[in-house]
Automatic annotation (TrEMBL):
Source organism, top-level taxon: Bacteria
InterPro entries tied to this protein: PRTase-like, PRTase_dom
Keyword match Methyltransferase: no
Protein known as: Purine phosphoribosyltransferase
Segments forming domain Phosphoribosyltransferase: 10-152
UniProt cross-references to PANTHER family, sorted A to Z: HYPOXANTHINE PHOSPHORIBOSYLTRANSFERASE, HYPOXANTHINE-GUANINE PHOSPHORIBOSYLTRANSFERASE
TM ranges: none
GO terms for MF: glycosyltransferase activity
Gene3D superfamilies: 3.40.50.2020
Amino acid sequence: MSPTANEREILTYDLFGNAIKELAQEIVDDYRPDLILSIARGGLLIGGALGYAMGVKNVSVINVEFYTGIGETLEAPVMLPPTPEAVDLSGMKVLIADDVADSGKTLELVQQYCADTVVESRTAVIYHKSRSIIEPDYAWKKTDQWIDFPWSSFPVVTPSGTPNGGDAA
């Protein structure tokens, strides 16, 4: 069952810009990572925006699948190829960036992946939910509502004239 409009946290692109500036300031006042590791897909924009805001040019991506729909997940998060080689992370201070710490399982998986090779890893998210098994090191806002992100709140774009992206006959 989908949440109604009044049960949702709405993030606009303007608000996202402010959130990134505030989050970046909190991070740089405390931590200077060598690398930002963005968890795709939700963390792609967060990691890139934090990289620009913090002057960190070394931004990488790790692909993790967990959510399959609104409130629907796999049993456990799964890393998808390509994944950064652990040796490439060796000796680095890493900031793991994602959009939300919902269950926290995705952040936990990526932290475990990094644990044996990095000097230190910390986590940064826009939103932190109280049920998360991970307490992010940096979070812009706490909420327990469903979040509408500006990049994922609209239907997938399909070719003009085809209702579901199929071939027009």
